[in-house]
Design brief:
By secondary structure, this protein is an alpha+beta fold. The protein has eleven helices and ten strands. The strands form three sheets. The chain has a five-stranded antiparallel β-sheet, with helices on both faces. β1 and β2 form a beta hairpin. The longest helix is centred in the C-terminal third of the chain and has 21 residues.
């Protein structure tokens, strides 16, 4: 633990470096309101903080910059998530007031919203379809020996399958098959499609079976979808081109991102800094992530990825607000 003066000096260095991206000198820190210490005292304390691993000095004559340990101390001292500015709150309110359409589009748009709020890359991981309950099944006769099966899941996913009809499958049989599917799939996961009981009508059961087969087959292709917004903003966040290139390449590897969000997420707003991420190309990055829930059940995750020099209070506020509003919007359907 640091004493109050060292903690205040470290906080001042972190805040100044976040704002300026320049090494912070003792004179600059000494002028901070509320410190009431001389530059010489600040220099001595900064030397101690450097020896203890909270700060580092990039050049002999330069000021100090925070290390991952310094950022971690700074983040851990944030006792509560701050608030968005009034302009950003209005931006979030307007977005969710007009957000509509299928789940995939909403998640894609949400990633862009989060990126615009923070100026970092935003990642939204969608729900796993196979774990979601079926809310409704619609079987529509399209004419020309084709029908469309439309499944609406509780997580907001809409799934469509084209079903081939037999010549004598009329609209009444299509309607009856839809009713039978609703009776045995609604409020269950798609896995129930493999165990739909027979109706006793051979032709009806054949049609129901065709739909059930298509629904069950859809499970094999299900997985978590990843939506990345504002990846190009990362270019402005780093000085080294090689760092930008490695970060962008990692963002393209969706399985890495999904795995990363799973590992750092502990059920609440979470911050991982630098080496804590455990991914070498992201060693100069920090990740702020939070879950979103649909109807009270954990559904997916959202987060922002930026440099370790990110504005943590703003990023945490944005992720907290957007995750909560996204969950509410999806629960409303």
């Amino acid at each position: 633990m640091l004493d109050d003066r060292k903690a205040a000096i470290l906080q001042a260095v972190v805040q100044e470096f976040i704002e300026t991206a320049q090494p912070v000198g003792s004179n600059r820190v000494a002028r901070q309101r509320g410190l009431n210490v001389s530059p010489a005292t600040v220099r001595n304390e900064m030397s101690v903080l450097e020896r203890e691993g909270y700060l580092t000095q990039p050049h002999t004559s330069a000021g100090r910059i925070p290390t991952d340990k310094g950022y971690r101390f700074f983040v851990d001292q944030l006792t509560e998530v701050g608030a968005l500015t009034s302009v950003k709150r209005q931006q979030v309110k307007a977005f969710f007031a007009h957000a509509h359409g299928e789940l995939e589009q909403m998640l894609h748009d949400t990633s862009r919203l989060l990126s615009s709020l923070t100026d970092y890359a935003a990642v939204v991981v969608g729900p796993q379809h196979e774990a979601a309950f079926v809310r409704s099944v619609h079987l529509v006769d399209l004419g020309g020996r084709a029908a469309m099966a439309v499944l609406v899941f509780a997580n907001g996913t809409v799934e469509k399958h084209t079903i081939e009809l037999e010549p004598d499958d009329g609209s009444e049989r299509v309607a009856a098959a839809g009713a039978h599917l609703n009776a045995h799939l609604v409020d269950r996961t798609r896995a129930a499609a493999t165990n739909i009981p027979a109706s006793g009508d051979r032709k009806l059961d054949r049609l129901v079976g065709a739909v059930a087969k298509a629904v069950a087959a859809g499970e094999a292709g299900d997985g978590e979808q990843v939506f990345v917004g504002g990846a190009s903003r990362m270019a402005a966040a780093f000085d080294a081109v090689d760092t930008v290139r490695s970060v962008l390449a990692t963002l393209e590897q969706q399985y890495v991102i999904v795995s990363l969000l799973r590992e750092v997420l502990d059920g609440a707003l979470s911050v991982s800094i630098g080496a804590e991420l455990g991914v070498a190309p992201l060693s100069e990055c920090s990740l702020v992530v939070a879950p979103y829930a649909i109807e009270g059940e954990p559904a997916g995750t959202i987060g922002v990825l930026g440099p370790t020099r990110m504005n943590y209070p703003d990023a945490m506020a944005a992720v907290a607000v957007v995750s909560r509003r996204l969950g509410t919007r999806l629960s409303e359907g």
